[in-house]
Design goal:
about 10% strand; 4 helices; alpha+beta; three-stranded antiparallel β-sheet; two-stranded antiparallel sheet
Length: about 130
């Protein structure tokens, strides 16, 4: 008999679970369906932008190139943040579709590194058990 799966809606934080160590191991990666904001330094770390380009090119121009390439959805000049594009499924571009694991974990943006300490409900996760 399968355990009942608690429905989680990433847009309704009251459905989230309080984060605790080890929670990620059995998760379906709900946080990887939320928009990811990245800095220019994050884009360099991800290998989407060369360090030289980041130092000498206007962020708007970089954003335009990355938008055309499909890795960035938009750029907010006021905050200086880029929003990474999502896959057609709504998942992060860097989330492996089968394993539901981050393919750039060591190079992931600061937003991801700091989750769940920051975000819409600090200390809580859009967690649901894996469907293995």
């Amino acid at each position: 008999m399968k355990p009942s799966v608690r429905l989680v809606d990433v847009d309704r934080t009251e459905t989230w679970t309080r984060w605790r160590r080890g929670l990620c191991e059995g998760c379906w990666a709900g946080c990887c369906t939320m928009p990811v904001e990245a800095t220019l330094a994050d884009l360099v770390r991800l290998g989407l932008v060369e360090a030289f380009e980041a130092e000498h090119e206007a962020p708007r121009r970089i954003a335009r190139r990355l938008e055309k390439g499909g890795s960035v959805a938009r750029y907010n000049a006021k905050s200086g943040l880029f929003t990474l594009a999502s896959a057609a499924s709504g998942d992060c571009l860097f989330l492996h579709p089968a394993t539901r694991r981050c393919t750039v974990y060591d190079r992931r943006p600061e937003t991801c590194r700091n989750h769940p300490r920051i975000g819409p409900r600090p200390g809580w996760c859009a967690w649901a058990p894996r469907a293995d």
